[in-house]
Amino acid sequence: MLTYALKLADRYDGMIIATFPDVPEAMAMGRDYDEACEQAQGALEAALERYAAEGRPFPEACAAGRLTVSTEKFETLAVA
Questions:
Q1: Which of 2, 14, 16, 40 is the most buried (most CB within 10 A)?
Q2: Could you report the per-residue pLDDT of 6-28, keeping only the tens digit for each?
Q3: Which residues neighbour 2 within 8 Å (Cβ) at sequence distance 6 or greater?
């Protein structure tokens, strides 16, 4: 399972932005924190799909945080 720290930030218009410090390509938004977290998993998986399609290694999970998002979708590809 791949797990990355998630950062949530309030936007000026009330939307919540979800980003991953270790996977800058993965970004999502939601009307509230719950929706932003739900959207974040899809954004993370889409970014990792691009890494896999380009033959690039997945980013190392270095950032620490209270919130994390995990995916098992790429479990077999993550083993190096």
A1: 40
A2: 999 999 999 999 999 999 999 99
A3: 48, 58, 61, 70, 71, 72, 74, 75, 78
- Domain map of the chain by residue range? 2-74
| Residues 28, 12: Cα–Cα separation, whole Å | 15
Class of domain 2-74: alpha beta
What count of other Cβ atoms lies within 10 Å of the Cβ of residue 14? 8
d(CA 47, CA 75): 15
Contact at 8 Å (CB) between 45 and 73?
yes
What's the pTM value of the predicted model, to 2 decimals?
0.82
